[in-house]
Amino acid sequence: MITSFATRTLGRTGPAVSSPGLGCMGLSGAYGDVDEDQGVRVIHDYLDAGGTLLDTGDFYGAGHNETLIARALRDRSRDDVVLSVKFGALLDPVTMMGGIDTRPVALRNFLTYSLRRLGTDHVDVYRPARLDPAVPIEETVGAIADLVEQGLVRHIGLSEVGAETIRRAAAVAPICDVQLEYSVLTRGIEDEILDTCRELGIGITAYGVLGRGMIGGGGELTGGRAIQPRFQGDNRAHNEALVSRLEELARAKGATIAQLAIAWVHARGDDLVPIIGARRPEQVATMIDSAGVVLDQTDLDRIDELIPPGAVRGERYPARFMADLDSERRSGTYAISSEG
After folding, report:
1. Does the keyword Hydrolase apply (predicted)?
2. Catalytic status, residue 60
3. How far apart are CA 291 and CA 20, in angstroms?
């Protein structure tokens, strides 16, 4: 295996970043406890290997994730890191779920706290975590564009929005990328969203590349995975059997199943950047070594045969969260899942 990152640009207007990027959510308890010193080491290992893209949200760990990143970057050059930050999710002290708020006055408040917690004077990519049904996307993007003019934000991103919303947002200001779930198990964006982004020159940062641990993970269900439909009952057994079909091809490539899955996203287009959530240093090494897995069209066709689009069972999120996903709407309605 080679041990270096590819470099890709987020859309026509965005920054150059390392690929894969490091998803930091899991370092703040999303999938079980992580020792803070270990979390810092994970970030350091990624950066020391040449990584540049750190993906976070101001609500990850109720702000903990941003303070952890600030600690990890304390003795590093800010210019060597691309910070992608999601905002807008509201938290409840009991349920940790409180809705979404992307009003201009709210996002300026959110950014103020993020800049303080991160210990920086700007965020490289700033994006609403979800579409706020009470706020036109034009108002939200326009307010972020004002922050770009002020130098507090460098680029505008989106997350989990559909094709119509992407077009409306791009008519207001340049959008560098849209963050969406995309993997060998989750291919819904291929129906419409991916083509729209490519038409408009907008990149995709793909999360959930390893199916939240379904690919190359396993073991006890902890944190957020415990409520995911794909891990429940017969769904889990079915989906794990699907993933096992990749074992022979992975061995032929001298790779793990996880590395194969990362390479699959990478091979789907130069406009795609996988975001991988590592919680341990050895997972960072796996991520880096995925760059040595080269897939040609024959390999991609074979993976389609092994795991056909729509073969996975269970929705991506529980029903109450699926209702918040603009990316799941088609022609004004929610998409009808073919995934059981």
Report:
1. no
2. yes
3. 8
Give the fold, CATH level 3, of 7-326: TIM Barrel (3.20.20)
Judge contact between 72 and 281, C-beta under 8 A. Answer: no
pLDDT in tens, 20-70: 999 999 999 766 677 899 999 999 999 999 999 999 999 999 999 999 999
CA atoms within 13 A on the CB side of 211: 27
**At CA 130, angle to CA 147 and CA 242, rounded to 5?**
135
Residue with more model confidence, 337 or 111: 111
226 falls in which pLDDT band (50, 70, 90)?
low
- Pair 72, 124: CB distance under 8 Å: no
Structure token pair of residue 243: 């993933």
Phi, psi of 203 (to 5 degrees): -80, 170
- Options 31, 46, 60, 126, the catalytic residue: 60
All structural domains of the chain with their residue ranges: 7-326
Residue with tokens 């905002």: 87
